[in-house]
Fold:
Amino acid sequence: MTQMHSHCSLGKVGRQSLAVAFDAPPLSRDAGLLIIRALEGPLGILAALARRLPDPRNPQFVEHSTERLLTQQVYQVLAGYADANDSQQTRSDPLFQLLADLEPDPQTPLASASTINRFAYAFTRRHSQPDEPDLDVLRRSCQTDRILILNHFLVELFLRTRLTPPTQIILDVDPTGVTVHGDQALSGYHGYYRQHQYFPLLVFDGASGFPLACWLRHGTAPAGLGVVDTLEALVAQLRAAWPTVRILVRADTGLATPAVFDFCERETLDYAIGYAANTVLERKVATATADVELYYRIRGRRDPHVQRYEEVRDYQSSGWSHVRRVVAKIERTPQGSQRRFVVTNLEGTPEWVYRDVYVQRGAVPERPIGELKNGLEADRLSQSGFCANAWRLLVRVLAYALVVLFGESCVGIKEVEKAEVGTLRKMLWKIPGMIGSTARRVVVRLSEDWPFNELWQRVWEAVGRYVERIREGPVLPAQEGVPM
Structure:
């Protein structure tokens, strides 16, 4: 084995010799993540979840607790380490040891990639106990229970962190294709997306973008698969906490199924759901379409983007138990003519329903899904097992929940409150820091010339105030909200 040099000479710079010495204190490139720990740690978010997660390992031989494994995975995702193999870089990093409530010590590293992967599969070498089911059954039960528990926990975390109980909630429901590269279990080729994929279902709070549910589904799943079950569980949790809250379901055309409409009406939920064009609807708005075309021919040069909003009150699709209201946007531009439809039980004007309610999906869920994929690499589902990939996806969704809470804690700090994950990493999280420890304390030293020093300290103070407000509990809700 080649011996590592502790001192390397690199010639001279002017009259001075130049050398490299490997004798600096431990250095971490992710010291800024302590600001997330200042939010998550005092609220006990990961600790509370870890206590609920089933773990079939024999406690006598567990070196890395469930909480430390969960903490390590979530903070690796936030730092941009997308794969379990990246733990080989972080497990001896003193900063990640601090995040996991360990004293910095290279002799006590965090979990390796193999340990993290075994945890995803709920693998254990122990034997079944006399009063337990077969070990394979127990492992699969642990995997599925974790998925259920984490989905339930997301809603609890949302409820707990609302400073003011809302009078209304928008549930943005959206499936998204996640490309796979291999033979992952239950992946498949989807004709619409033209790729081998999984097809997870996600639900976000329309106001904040907070993730409320994430269910991995097989690659060829219909868009509406599991939507009613997911909404039923969410509505039950939300109304148990806020019995009078008004709930709106917002979704795209793939979820416009009779089952979803019937559920919303049975549970007295508002809804605005996109609907695919068909010959019947086109015929019902034909007169309005002709008017728009005539206007465009006469005034098109002066007004090249013409829009008109109409409603259809007597439309009943096959499979519907009764007629429902459909609003239509009729548009003529230099690129051509198009009609778009939304099924709704809201009573506002067609323009209001379409522009002020339905089209706002551009902010949520489109932006959160983009952040999950681009910022947190949630589309890297490279495990071979389906439940292991579901867990992998949920860890990223949990990390995104912390990002949303971080943004909420920084309201009023314009550089941060709406910043994307990539921007937060560059400005606040990816900070080189020297970490030293004594018998009494650990000190993380950052450069005094770092350009975001003042911003980081402002954010630190804002996070502290936010944590205190959460601990104090919510204030009374406002008497009036924006009408739906």
